[in-house]
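Need a sequence for this fold. Nothing fancy.
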């Protein structure tokens, strides 16, 4: 294959995705992630509601109330766009859902509805639900996309296959050869079907949710089962929420919140117990922890798990967005991988400055992690962000938003080099799942997984990284070149 003067790197692996549900949401729901205001969001939903319904539900994804002067919206706002059908709009981080009045009525959320453990229904001054649902309470909502994914009729399977095949093409166009997926069992079922039919387009290491652990134990499943195309990676556990929803679990309260420190989804002895159980059963741990207290609790739980595991296991903290220096050193000593998403920096700088005024100096501490000896595995968190790896490069190297704020970079000492970011997508990705040998490298005997670049990322200034031209990729020796090439 003659690629001219293309630059070749080891194939990029996105280390944190919701790949299957990203594929389905691209096909079934309304995207509002690029909307900058409440009015723009409502107009987008109003225009597309009829064409993008899933059953009789209207679904949208990607709102960011941190960009809106009025803050969180309410059910009456959404009623303006969808007055007659039940509607659910998930936030950019998927830790908050926004319901209209028809959805509140359909689900039966009333002033008497109690908050579930690890979640909450926001209420107005009179105790009435506002239509905003957060954390564990989101998991109790109807999920029409999940219900669609569980269908086995021919029409549904054809739609799912089209969505996945389209997603593979998008991944190839970005030079992505593999993904670590944190979706649940239905995702694994469909990816297994594609693997069996030799239609799986990228290599996938797949987590299972904590709720699936008892069933996995009965079946004798554990980390590492599978092959070079599809294998089991870990148990995914949530320790807290997110910065965008102000549910990340922090040591210090959010300003003006009346002492609110976030939402500990699992913490303390309960988190340690599930971590120990999973590790004893042969499972690596991928623990979602964003706030500094959640990261600290996750490290403590992993330390306990390491004492009981019978075989070598690689444990990870997913996101680790706010991590204190002492906890970075503990991560290094325990060999905990930091699975991070530098692309989030662009959207989080102003939000962190507002909600983490004391802790923002410890936000996205990538260079401190590397200097301490922590392995970085880099991903996108798609569909919360774009799958485009150039956003991760820009976020880590420039540490500004797309408008160049703040000048000189946000905590610039934490910048990474292009090489360090690419290692996070390649050798770091391999280390984060325990290999295989030579994975993430260009070497004799390594799998022929390559990312092809028209522009040399090592010679590109930080401000131009978002516009790098990608030629495509090679997976297992098979080329997938962008059409222009």
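Here you go.
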């Amino acid at each position: 294959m003659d690629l001219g003067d293309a630059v070749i790197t080891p194939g990029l692996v996105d280390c944190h995705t919701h790949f299957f549900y990203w594929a389905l949401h691209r096909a079934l729901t309304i995207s509002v992630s690029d909307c900058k205001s409440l009015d723009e969001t409502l107009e987008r939903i109003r225009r597309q509601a009829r064409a993008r319904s899933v059953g009789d539900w209207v679904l949208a994804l990607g709102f960011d109330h941190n960009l809106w002067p009025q803050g969180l919206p309410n059910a009456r706002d959404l009623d303006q766009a969808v007055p007659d059908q039940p509607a659910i709009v998930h936030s950019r981080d998927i830790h908050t859902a926004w319901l209209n009045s028809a959805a509140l009525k359909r689900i039966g959320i009333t002033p008497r509805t109690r908050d579930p453990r690890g979640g909450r229904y926001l209420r107005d001054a009179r105790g009435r639900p506002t239509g905003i649902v957060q954390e564990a309470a989101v998991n109790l909502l109807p999920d029409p996309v999940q219900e669609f994914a569980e269908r086995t009729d021919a029409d549904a399977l054809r739609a799912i296959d089209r969505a996945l095949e389209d997603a593979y093409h998008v991944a190839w166009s970005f030079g992505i050869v593999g993904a670590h997926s944190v979706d649940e069992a239905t995702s694994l079922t469909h990816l297994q079907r594609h693997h069996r039919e030799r239609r799986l387009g990228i290599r996938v290491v797949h987590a299972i949710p904590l709720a699936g652990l008892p069933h996995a134990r009965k079946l004798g499943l554990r980390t590492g089962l599978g092959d070079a195309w599809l294998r089991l990676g870990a148990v995914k556990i949530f320790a807290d929420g997110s910065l965008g929803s102000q549910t990340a679990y922090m040591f210090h309260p959010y300003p003006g919140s009346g002492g609110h420190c976030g939402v500990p989804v699992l913490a303390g002895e309960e988190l340690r117990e599930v971590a120990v159980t999973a590790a004893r059963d042969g499972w690596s741990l991928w623990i979602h922890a964003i706030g500094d207290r959640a990261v600290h609790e996750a490290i403590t739980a992993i330390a306990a798990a390491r004492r009981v595991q019978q075989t070598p296991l690689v444990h990870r903290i997913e996101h680790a967005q706010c991590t204190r220096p002492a906890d970075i050193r503990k991560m290094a000593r325990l060999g905990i991988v930091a699975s991070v998403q530098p692309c989030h920096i662009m959207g989080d700088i102003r939000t962190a400055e507002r909600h983490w005024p004391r802790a923002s100096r410890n936000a996205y501490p990538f260079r401190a992690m590397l200097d301490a000896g922590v392995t970085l595995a880099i991903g996108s968190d798609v569909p919360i962000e774009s799958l485009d790896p150039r956003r991760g490069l820009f976020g880590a190297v420039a540490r500004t938003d797309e408008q160049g704020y703040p000048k000189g970079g946000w905590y610039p000492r934490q910048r990474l080099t292009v090489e360090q970011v690419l290692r996070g997508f390649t050798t770091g990705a391999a280390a984060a799942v325990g290999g295989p040998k030579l994975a993430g490298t260009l070497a004799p005997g390594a799998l022929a997984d390559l990312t092809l670049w028209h522009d040399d990322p090592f010679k590109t200034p930080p401000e131009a990284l978002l516009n790098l031209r990608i030629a495509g990729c090679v997976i297992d020796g098979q080329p997938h070149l962008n059409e222009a090439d």
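For context: The chain has a mean pLDDT of 95.
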